[in-house]
Amino acid sequence: MRLLELIPHAWLRWAVLTLLGLAIGQSLVMATRLTVWTQPPLLLLWLLFAWYWRWGAPATSVDHPGVRHSKAIPWALVPLMFWGIFDYLANSFGKVDMGAVFFHLQAGISQHGGTERTVAAVFHTLGTGLVLLAYSWLVRRDGRWHRWDRYLAVLLLACNPMFYSMGQRGAAVVADPGAWLERRYVEPVILEAPRRPPNLLVLYLESLERTYGDTQRFGDAYGDIAALEPRAVVFDNVRQIDNTGWTTAGMIASQCGTPLMPAGLLHDRQFEPLHHVVPGVRCLGDLLNDEGYRLTFMGGASTQFAGKGLFYRDHGFDRALGREELSPRLEDPDYLNSWGLYDDSLYRMVATEVQKLDSKPGPWAMVALNLSAHAPVGYPSQSCLDHFGEYDGVDILYSVRCSAWLTRNLIERLERKGLLENTLVVIASDHLTMRVSEWDALNASERTNTLMMMGNGLTPRRIHRSATTMDTLPTLLEAMGFTIDWHRAGLGVSLLSGEPTLLQRHGMEEVNRYMREETALQERLWQGLAPQIHNDGQPAEPPAVPTAPEQP
């Protein structure tokens, strides 16, 4: 702080006030749906208040004797640090999901990619440090801010969205541990299999949500996926509920029919890495493994990150192949990005693996996860650069276009080789994208995930029902020709049936509200527990009686 005294007071004062105004504007934009264009007016308004009330001016120190030379540490510094953490998470991921934070800390983040995030974290830490210095200077120079400091600390803690969501769930659990979702959970069961079970190809497109299909806002970025829609059953209203908004959670929601509620404090060794992922529920891999399928997962990133490898190996997959297993197959060992393989390399290997699987008797299933459109800027492959031209390193639409183009090429390549004749092809986004260059445009309307299925005799059509990614599992099973219990699996309902979905019955807000109170389903996920009697003394709710099909 002594070095600051060498700077002329007027310069330092307005530099401090400007920095604090920028921080306030940034936090408001991150915590609300305000756009970045509102930051300059917010800064101007803040500086006008500071000028009018003479914040930080020398004369104000007389309002509180001895403040100018006080060495006391302001109370609000700790809440400001937490706001710095919130701003970083919101700026990086769009929505701050503490469930995702807790899960990744337990499941493992050592093999993450995205060096851009690391660099951003360093600069954000430096910026937060400057804000703390600026606030300390203001409190020590202005008696009014010194008096307000304690109250401001309480206000900053109470208003931080991180603590609001955590406190809301904690209070609900203490008051009345919930079992609303658990009572609606239906154990996934295959009652009858088709005479000739089809093969299955699931292509998860990282962050490539269906919202990009709006050509007025995003041009032809989604065009190659849209070109496949006339041949597919398109589900155009698949929403994203809480605890399904990151890659592992999105895959679990669509393959297990349940949100990924992190283990949290359910285990005595909650601070040790996880050794199993949702061991208490049966998922797509478990069901297909029982039916004699050979199952393979392939992704360009490490399977050690966020428990992906654990999940697939725990749930019936024979192989889970990621960066460590696939990078030795590259012709150019240096053709890698910070996450792992580029998608053109991954898809060539997927095509080779599908050909090997198809050459052997019995049904197979291949699940692949790409990463071209991964936030914040994507990782377009060299083949896309050759085809579309130079990439500016910022525009996510370029990466979206690359992901869509490569995916369409893969499907057409497999079709030409006759490898999809008895195969259901599923194309799905793993979750909605996190903060990218088109963030404000994406949030200008309700956002939906990509989900389409083609092949295996499906009649192309569009299905517009309020659904979530949890409805993917039963829909996929029925599209493959399997008969399942009540058209349901987990919390999902087959969108090919007339059964109303959880979202149709209760709406997004109510489902998310009950999820914040839920503990019984969380215990089932992580301990394999399925209580017969719930905390309210009532037995588990039986499946609803099937209703008549919806009228078009």
UniProtKB/TrEMBL annotation:
Primary localization class, coarse: membrane
Sulfatase N-terminal domain residues: 198-481
Region (Disordered) location: 532-552
Gene3D superfamilies: Alkaline Phosphatase, subunit A
Lineage: Bacteria, Pseudomonadati, Pseudomonadota, Gammaproteobacteria, Oceanospirillales
Pro residues composition-biased segments: 540-552
Membrane topology qualifier: Multi-pass membrane protein
GO CC entries: plasma membrane
Keyword Transmembrane helix: yes
Nucleus in keyword set: no
Species of origin: Halomonas huangheensis
Transmembrane segments: 12-30, 36-53, 73-90, 119-139
Protein name stated in the entry: Sulfatase N-terminal domain-containing protein
